[in-house]
Specification:
- Chain A: This is Exosome complex component RRP43.
- The complex is a heterodimer of chains A (276) and B (233).
- Chain A has 276 residues and is an alpha+beta fold.
- Chain A contains 6 helices and 12 strands.
- With 233 residues, chain B is of the alpha+beta class.
- Helix content of chain B is 29%, strand content 31%.
- The longest helix of chain B has 29 residues.
- Classes of the chains: A alpha+beta (276), B alpha+beta (233).
- Chains A and B meet through helix 3, strand 12 and helix 6 of A and helix 1, strand 9, strand 10 and helix 4 of B.
Chain lengths: 276, 233
């Protein structure tokens, strides 16, 4: 009977739960879904991570290749993210060129990388003016159940922490690059940006980590990306109902706690992986 | 038929330094707005902020493709064309921001199963482009007579490395700044409708408060420009 009511009046069904300060899946308004992360599962990629936020699953693979730097930045490498939302993850996506959602997510991840300075592009330089590393970060969503931006940011961070670049020397006689696959080193990750997404309901209520259905019923969304010093890398609010300054401050404090949780989880996973 | 209105909006009195047109306080550049300049769209507006200029045209409410129609509201579409080159992923991201902002204010339920299309063309970019696009879109929607629950305006601010806030930054100020924040605020309660930020910063409250104060000037400019237009005819 409840299922019938849910189909006919989804918003009313939802409001009944919100009145009791909880959600249909039993979570509180400020509670995140269970987050699990698996690092280093793809052996063919230089770095990889799989993140599950409840049902939302995103896998990130990082491949490093050589490239010639551009003339106006001869000592800077490139980090090229791409988010793919294939028809596999949800019925709303069709096959073909990337839709708007995928493009917006790709631009968001590119902005986070650029704003947070997660990797110093100068670290990716092998020989100024001649050879630099380019890191292709491919994020593929395997299951879309809302809050794709948080999952993608986490997957990207975990994968970059897993990337090992081999040592490259330029042979002076032949001017060719020699790759020493036996000597690999991790990337220097300077900051750890963590995203926290909120959905706005009925212009007043804010809930954390919306599922797919909640995102559909929400009147607005907000994503805050914070690094460990409490600095904001990105305050992404793509329209939707208005928010007052006070509500914004509440969201920021929630984002700070989330950052601590995520960082702890990631440190645990990396520590458990080290003896290889 | 055309109305051109200019105004100088200032928040604090300038010190009158000759080298930079604005002091380290908060003041907006010279605004200008021209409405109803294109003959084909239902509404059009050109918004100028200093040297940044955006032309907006609105078609709607018009017929919508069955695949895109929503049974109880109007379908809003935003197309943003850059000055040079083909539209890319960055334009798609901006289109989404502008579209969601417009969806929050436009009363779509009055025109179900129709489409409202906002087309924006960047004429020149000298900083604060997203804010200028938002202002142009709002003026064009007003010119087209699309019912809205509030007006909205875009305000950009830049934070440089020593923490000073500059409103409505030029391209040079944007490049040198530590962070550039663009906000869209509504006219009724000055609530935050849209926010898009670039760079690393920690003080949102101060920027938001400054943007809210600046938005008063922008809304006053809207009101004056519309009053002047309708009082003559």
């Amino acid at each position: 009977m409840a299922a019938g009511f849910k189909t006919v009046e989804p918003l009313e069904y939802y409001r009944r739960f919100l009145k009791e300060n909880c959600r249909p899946d039993g979570r509180e308004l400020g509670e995140f879904r269970t987050t699990t992360v698996n690092i280093g599962s793809i052996s063919t990629a230089d770095g990889s991570a799989l993140v599950k936020l409840g049902n939302t699953t995103v896998i990130c693979g990082v491949k490093a290749e050589f490239a010639a730097p551009s003339t106006d930045a001869p000592d800077k490498g490139y980090v090229v993210p791409n988010v793919d939302l294939p028809p596999l993850c949800s019925s709303r996506f069709r096959s073909g060129p990337p839709g708007e959602e995928a493009q917006v997510a790709s631009q968001f991840i590119a902005d986070v990388i650029e704003n947070s300075q997660i990797i110093q592009k100068e670290d990716l330089c092998i020989s100024p003016g001649k050879l630099v590393w380019v890191l292709y970060c491919d994020l593929i969503c395997l299951d879309y159940d809302g809050n794709i931006l948080d999952a993608c940011t986490f997957a990207l961070l975990a994968a970059l922490k897993n990337v090992q670049l081999p040592e490259v020397t330029i042979n002076e006689e032949t001017a060719l690059a020699e790759v020493n696959l036996k000597k690999k080193s991790y990337l220097n990750i300077r900051t750890h940006p963590v995203a926290t997404s909120f959905a706005v309901f009925d212009d007043t209520l804010l809930i954390v980590d919306p599922t797919g259905e909640e995102e559909h019923l929400a009147t607005g969304t907000l994503t805050i990306v914070m690094d460990e010093e409490g600095k904001l890398c990105c305050l992404h609010k793509p329209g939707g109902s208005g928010l007052t300054g006070a509500k914004l401050q509440d969201c920021m404090s929630r984002a700070v706690t989330r950052h601590k949780e995520v960082k702890k989880l990631m440190d645990e996973v990396i520590k458990s992986m080290k003896p290889k | 038929m055309e109305e051109e209105t200019h105004t100088d909006a200032k928040i604090r009195a300038e010190n009158g330094t000759g080298s930079s047109p604005r002091g380290p306080g908060c003041s907006l550049r010279h605004f200008a707005c021209e409405q109803n300049l294109l003959s084909r769209p239902d509404g059009s507006a050109s918004f100028l902020q200093g040297d940044t200029s955006v032309l907006a045209g609105v078609y709607g409410p018009a017929e919508v493709k069955v695949s895109k129609e929503i049974f109880n509201k109007a379908t809003l579409e935003v197309i943003l064309r850059p000055k040079i080159g083909l539209p890319g992923v960055a334009e798609k991201s901006r289109e989404r921001l502008i579209r969601n902002t417009c969806e929050a204010v436009v009363l779509g339920t009055l025109h179900p199963r129709t489409s409202i299309t906002v087309v924006l063309q960047v004429v020149s970019d000298a900083g604060s482009l997203l804010a200028c696009c938002l202002n142009a879109a709002c003026m064009a929607l007003v010119d087209a007579g699309v019912p809205m629950r509030a007006l909205f305006c875009g305000v950009a601010c830049a934070l440089d490395s020593d923490g000073t806030l500059v409103l409505d930054p030029t391209s040079k100020q944007e490049k040198e700044a530590r962070a550039v924040l663009t906000f869209a605020l509504d006219s009724v309660e000055r609530k935050l409708l849209m926010s898009s930020t670039k760079g690393l910063y920690s003080d949102t409250e101060q920027c938001l408060a400054a943007a809210q104060a600046a938005s008063q000037h922008v809304f006053r400019f809207y009101r004056e420009s519309l009053q002047r237009r309708y009082s003559k005819s």
